[in-house]
Amino acid sequence: MFDRKEYNKRYYYGQYKNGKNVKKKCLSCGKEFFVFPSRVKKGGGKFCSRKCVGKEVNKNHNYEVIKRCKTCGKEFYTYRYRTKNGRGGKFCSASCRSIWTVKHNRKKNTQIEIKVREMLKKLGIKFESQKIIPEGKTIADFYIPEQRLVLYADGKYWHSLPEVKNRDGNQDFLLAFNGYKVLRLGGDEINFKPIKCLNKIKKYLKKKGGVKWKQ
């Protein structure tokens, strides 16, 4: 029966094999270990384990480098070498990177977003389009800062998919938890019932209070 421990002992750690292996001392922890002569000739055999290699890498690259996330503005730590080429060290998480990419790679608004934009302009409400909201890990289609109101124009097909519904629910929960109000308008409602949609926005603003619009 094959014995992995005995195999490692003989051939990997080099405690046997006719005494041909070289005894070295780890540069990180100082522990003595055995290594193949071929690895020493190639410049290897300096560390006894991957853990010790990682410690030395962190030490050389100076882990304690503070950067500010381009999406949420949060300060975070990153490797110094990642910031040298200008590609890394820009975002604190994968979600912030995704939000930034979606916002800046988008070329134009959808038809239903254009219609909602015209409704808000007609009401004379101050709003922001494609607003990044880090707390909700989302990009709001429209944001009314006076009430911290997040407004979405949801297409029928895409937002009817189960996985997208779950994502929308998670976003609504995070936004509500952080003090935002959320209003979602469906694509059919915007396209075929614009007056009803407009009255819904008015009613919602009147209910929350604090915002005036043109009559």
Gyration radius from CA atoms, angstroms: 29 Å
- Beta content comes to 15-25%
Return the CATH topology of the largest domain: Endonuclease, Chain A
Annotation field: number of helices: 9
Distance between the termini: 87 Å
- Number of DSSP-assigned strands: 8
What does the largest sheet look like?
Answer: 4 strands, mixed
Blueprint (SSEs and pairs):
Blueprint: H1 4-12, E1 22-25, E2 32-35, H2 37-41, H3 50-61, E3 65-68, E4 75-78, H4 80-84, H5 94-105, H6 111-123, E5 128-133, E6 138-144, E7 149-154, H7 162-177, E8 181-186, H8 187-192, H9 194-208
Summarize the structure.
The protein is of the alpha+beta class.
Q: What are its keywords?
A:
Endonuclease, Chain A, alpha+beta, 215 residues, 3 domains, four-stranded mixed beta sheet, elongated
Characterization of the model:
- The protein is of the alpha+beta class.
- The chain has 3 domains: 1-49, no CATH class; 62-106, no CATH class; 111-208, Endonuclease, Chain A, CATH 3.40.960.10.
- It is 43% helix and 19% strand.
- The protein contains 9 helices and 8 strands.
- The chain is elongated.
- Mean pLDDT is 79; it is low at 14-18.
